[in-house]
Amino acid sequence: MRHRQAIALLALVGLFVALYLWLHALGFGGAIKCGASGACETVQTSQWAVFLGLPVACYGVVGYLAVLVVALASLREAALPQRHWNVMLVGLASVGFLFTIYLTYLELFVIHAICRWCIGSGVIITAIWIVSLLSLRSPAIHTDRAVSQPPRDRPA
């Protein structure tokens, strides 16, 4: 349960980071807050800031939202002993982690600029990925509900 709680919290933080970047990509908020280097602006205005016609940050918002929804759904009492939630979280986190590796490669070797917000998001999705992998190793959680059994017929 702790793994799923940590993933939900990390996904919420990641959602806010991605939402900030997406709102910037949509033209809200003026210049991105990234320090004096201007590297964030360089990354966010590069040709690589759009993927399949949408701002990359939009994929971050959708991805973090998906992880958050699955993590919260997996915290329901009925869902706690079900391990398929952990597998779904690993799958979502793996997609995000692989996409982050690709984007970080672009920043380092193609764009030659590092966006602090992007690196922050990369750290968050990497943490989610690691915690989700650790959740696969955790033993299944058993709820303390006693299974009710029908009363036995007693001889009269």
What features would you describe in this structure?
- A two-stranded antiparallel sheet has the order 1-2.
- Helix 1 (2-25) runs antiparallel to helix 5 (116-137).
- The protein has one domain (2-137): VKOR domain (de novo design (two linked rop proteins), Up-down Bundle).
- The protein starts with a helix and ends in a 19-residue tail after the last helix.
- Mean pLDDT is 87; it is low at 143-148.
- The chain has 156 residues and is mostly helical.
- Helices cover 63% and strands 3% of the residues.
- A hairpin with a 2-residue loop joins strand 1 (50-51) and strand 2 (54-55).
- The chain is built from five helices and two strands, in the order ααββααα.
Which keywords apply here?
156 residues, de novo design (two linked rop proteins), two-stranded antiparallel ribbon, 5 helices, 63% helix
Please give a quick description of this structure:
This protein is an all-alpha fold and 156 residues long. It has helices at residues 2-25, 39-44, 56-73, 84-111, 116-137, and strands at 50-51, 54-55. Strands 1-2 form a two-stranded antiparallel ribbon.
What percentage of the residues does DSSP assign to strands (E)?
under 5%
**Count of beta strands:** 2
Mean pLDDT figure:
87
Distance between the termini: 47 Å
